[in-house]
Structure formats: structure tokens, C-alpha cells
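Let us work through a complete example step by step.
Step 1: write down the sequence.
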Amino acid sequence: MSWRARIALAWGGLVFAAALALSGAAGITSSEAASMSAGARTAGWLLASPRQPAASLRGLAELSAERGRPLLAEAFHGFAGAAGERLGLGPIRGLRLGAALVAGLLAAALALTGFALGGVPVALLAPAVFWFTPRTLSLGLLATPDLLGALLWLMAVQAYARALANTTRLSRTGAGLWCGVLCAAAAAVRPDLSSLWPVLVLHWGLGRVHLRWLARHNHPTPAPGTDWAARLRHLPTAIGAALLLIPAAVLAFWPSLWSAPLGAAGALLGTIGWGQPRLVVNPALHALAALPAPTVALLALGAGHATLRLAGALRRHDGDVARLEALWLLAGTLPLLLAAVGVAPRLPGLSPVVQALAPLALLGARALVALAELAWPERRLAVLGALAIALLYPGLRAAAVTFPLGASAWGEPLGGAAGAAWRGWPRQEGGEAVRGLLDELALHAAPGARVRWIGVAPWAIERYRQAGLLRADLTDAAGVDEADLAVVARDGARDAEYEVWTAFGTSRAVGALYLDEVALVMVYARPGAWR
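Step 2: predict the structure and record it as C-alpha cells.
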């Protein structure tokens, strides 16, 4: 077995095992609750389709209309979750089996691509750059479409890079077709990932502009006329395949659009941020502020190093290197730019831009290797080890210290969780921090107490109950007035909490969960409801 395969297998197995082991302790966000619930229903309808095709089609159409997106990710997590429960992994860890598989595959893909970009050192470092942060670790434990989309994004870019290589025409065509398939799958997982096609088009267009500039520089008198047929023949197979397959895949996995395909454009615009209410903070700024400062510095170093390599390749007229550098730069930076101008899903956390982090992690790992080589060529491995520890250890330590509340962690320049709370930014991604207070609630709640859950998805509460994390005698209250206990997951807004204070006649919490002295969850009780 080659070093390339060994490193990829080791990273993939390690991350899969870690994600599966840790997934039982992480709370369920509102977006994951919706994804899990839809996944189980999608799998059920697909299994019933041979016996009840009409009813299954209606059910899938209603579900896709409810979700407002294609159902490929839901189908994947639904079947993986059913397999996980059958394997005896439990009501929470079992449903996250698909997430653990995706996390392991993404780590392996990073290692394989890193080996192609810079050999063994980059293959070893790239997965660590991506995973050694609280936010990416938390996202990797959740059964949502986000990490699956990031995996397909990375694989599609790598396939396009192979298609650019100077190999046989047959291999280039095969890689281009595979890239088109991956682009279509990514768009069917999350429609906003169809922005990968503009990345490819922009890359190809910039390459054509550079070629025309070289031709004009060498031959000042251009040939008359325009041979459009010749230009189309130079169009990469990947771009043509993606152009055909992306709409087909989105339509195929979005049954609610089958009766009204012209509504696809409006539905797609709704999933990428236009027409949606804006968050307190822009998704691109949110992502950079949520990551540890050394990680952000390493990602920026990678982008800067790639820019320098691109400029050097252009000066040397080295087209192969220039095309490769431009591709990875576009794949890593364009999602951030789109998010910065509002063309991204209005989702909390890293979800809107997570697809950009994998290419940037590769560039950062390669830049670190180049920096060690430049600093001390004779001792480059020792220097590389020291730099890796200095830049990666803070993120790894933060991930360990904040687990399982890593989705509430923020970077050091912002002032951590306290700085984000002071600015009114979201304290969590959707009620997942409540998981940390369930043991205390089960210990102190009075028998038969009625609990009002605020900021927590009802499906998540039901799943906690099935997992035995909630006492069977505790029931859900429909409103604050009829509740004995109120569990409030703070997300920045306080109106619901003020309502609890008024109904209970007290603002004193009987239980709380904090991260860096920032309250994430508060528990309020009527007299006698808390022992």
C-alpha cells in the first residue's frame, strides 16, 4: 500500500471513529432536527414506493415543498440513520452514522488531495487544519446537508483539476464527466452549491483571457473573424456536463417542482439568501470570527501563498501551474465573497461557507510546508512541526475545552463567546446547548412537571426522550401559563424569557449552562417544581 493510501485511510478511519464516538454527546440543533425528521420520512416514502407509488410521490412532493429544497441529503441521512439504529448505535448516535461517514470521507479526501498538491507533509496537515477547530468539529457531528455538500465540492474541484492535467484526451474527458456528476450531486444536496459551476466557468474564462493576451502579445495583428465553433470545442467537458446535469439533478430530487418546473428559479433564489430575513451578522464575517485566530491566519497564509504562486506562474508563462492555482483560489474564496454580498443561505454557524474551508485548508497546509522550507531548509521537518503545533494546537485545545458546546465558540479577536454575546450575535445554532442540562433537569424536576421548551426543536425533545435523557413523567407544556418549568435556550433575543419571568413571577433561574461565563441555557421554575 502506498503512502498516499495509508495516510488517507488513517485519517479517514480516525475521524470516522472520533465522530461516531463523540456524536452521542452533542446536542441537536433546530436545522439538524428538521434534517433528521425529513430524512426518516424520505427513507420511509422511498421504501414504500414499490408498493404505493402514487402515495409515495405525493408524500415526497409535500416533503420537498416543506423543506424548500431537493431531498438527496435527507435520503442519504435517512437511510444511514436507519442502518445506524439497526446496528444498535442508539436513537441519537445511530441517526448520525451518515454524518460520521461523511466526516471520515472528507478527511480522507483532504489527505488524498493534499498528497497531490504537496506530498506527504501536506497530506498529513490538511485534515488537521480543517478539523482542529470547535466549529468544524461540531458541524462534523451533525446529520445535516452541509458537510456532505462540502465533501462533494472538494471532490468536484479535484476532479476538475485532474481534467486540467496534461494527460490523454480520454482521461480528461472522463475526469470532466465525473466532475459534472459531482457538481450535480452537490447542487442536489444544497442548491446554493450550484455556484460551483460559475467557479468553473470563471476559471475557464480567465484562462481564455490569458491565452488571448499571450496571443496578442506574440502576434499583435489578430486574425479577422470569430470562430465560435472552435471556441466551443475548447469548452471543458466538466462545464458542459455540469450545465446539463445540475438542473436535471435538482429537478429529479425536488419532487414538488415536477408539476411546476418554472418555479425552480424562485425556489433556488430562496435557498441562497435572496428574500430571506438577514441574520445579525454576515455569514462570511461570522465564519471568520467563529474560527480560532491561528486557523484564520493559516487560511489567509494559504490564500496569499497561492496568489504568489499564481503570479509567478503567469510571469513564467507556466500555464499548468497557473490554471491549478487559480482553480483552488477560486474554489476557496468565491464562496466567502458570495456570502459577503448576501448570496448564501441565511444559516447560523459555518454552514453557508463550509465548502470553502476544505480548499483553504489544503492551501494553508501547503503554505506551512513552504514556509518551513524557506525558513530553514536543512531542518525543515523540525520547523514544520514547530509551526504546526503553534498554529494548530490552539484550535485543537479550544475544541477539547468547549466540547460539546463548540457551536457556541468564537475566535479570540472577537473576545470569545463573551464578545459575541456583547455584540448581540447568536449564542448557539438552534437550541443544541440544552443537551448539557438534561441530566440536571432529570435530577431536580418535580414528578409529573410540565416543561415549556423555548428555542428548542420539538423533534429534538422527542429524540432526547427516546434516548432516555428525559424522564418519562416529564411532559411538554403548550404554553408558559400552564408550565411548571421553563427551559430557555438563549439565542440573543430575550422576549420569550421576559414572558417566563412575568408568568412565573421571578427572574431567578434555578439552573443554567454557561460557556466562558456566557449563559446559553436558563431553567426557571414555579414554587415546588424544582427539588
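Step 3: interpret the result. The two ends are 61 Å apart (CA to CA).
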